[in-house]
Design brief:
The complex is a heterodimer. Chain A is mainly β. Chain A is about 0% helix and about 60% strand. The termini of chain A are far apart. In chain B, strands 2, 4, 5, 6, 9, 10 and 11 form a 7-stranded mixed beta sheet that branches. Chain B has a 4-stranded antiparallel beta sheet with strand order 1-3-8-7, with no helix packed on it. Chain B is mainly β. Classes of the chains: A mainly beta, B mainly beta. Chains A and B meet through strand 4, strand 5 and strand 9 of A and strand 5 and strand 10 of B.
Chain lengths: ~110, ~120
């Protein structure tokens, strides 16, 4: 059974204080790993897709990396507007297209 | 504006009263899906559709039905809602270019309460 564990569950940072969110996964074979951002009362917003170990993607203050067992979302010099819940999901190789989502990390950035 | 719309956004109903939550996308996406989001459980897929007239079960399909008669619409039907279907529901779509989960666009959500 595919599993995705995100840590920490919640993270409070001061503006400018860089940190990383972790997504550990267990799948028989990885088709893709996805990061989403979700603001309160809204639907998730796509951030990145990573397909293979060693791959990295960046967008503004966010950088996602992937190894064979986990992914990190690095947040450099965060701003209050980066406050949100960050969701990680994986899709396994095989006939099913059902993704497995983690429970998310709630990030609060204080000014 | 490219978007996924859902209606209604909020719904309070009673056990057993059939309801439909509509979902529509204007991006000509082949792939559409429905999720429910519950505290402590994360997002779980209910049903998905690879294209018109092609639907399949997700992780938690019991108690739900879907149809895909048109490319842009993917309604979620609860024939006989029960209190355990109280949840926040999201519709999503993406272009199926061999990787249907790449960049899913999510709707704003429908908060359903079944009394």
């Amino acid at each position: 059974e595919d599993q995705v564990t995100q840590s920490p569950e919640a993270l409070r940072l001061q503006e400018g204080e860089s940190s990383s969110l972790n997504c550990s996964y267990t799948v028989s074979g990885l088709r893709g790993l996805f990061w989403y951002r979700q603001d309160p009362g809204k639907g998730p917003e796509f951030l990145f897709t990573l397909y293979s170990a060693g791959e990295e993607k960046e967008k503004e203050r966010l950088k996602a990396t992937l190894t064979k067992k986990e992914s990190f979302l690095h947040i450099t010099a965060p701003k209050p507007e980066d406050s949100a819940t960050y969701l990680c999901a994986v899709q396994a190789v095989g006939g099913s297209y059902i993704p497995t989502f983690g429970r998310g990390t709630s990030l609060i950035v204080h000014p | 504006e490219a978007q996924v719309t859902q209606n209604p956004r909020y719904l309070i109903t009673v056990t057993g009263k059939k309801l439909t939550v509509t979902c529509s996308q204007n991006m000509n996406h082949e792939y559409m899906s429905w999720y429910r989001q519950d505290p402590g459980l994360g997002l779980r897929q209910i049903y998905y559709s690879m294209n018109v007239e092609a639907t399949d079960k997700g992780d938690v399909p019991e108690g739900y039905k879907v149809s895909r008669k048109e490319k842009r619409n993917f309604p979620l039907i609860l024939e006989s809602p029960s209190p355990n279907q109280t949840s926040l529901y999201f519709c999503a779509s993406s272009a199926n270019r061999g990787r249907p989960y790449n960049e899913q666009f999510f709707g704003p959500g429908t908060r359903l309460t079944v009394l």
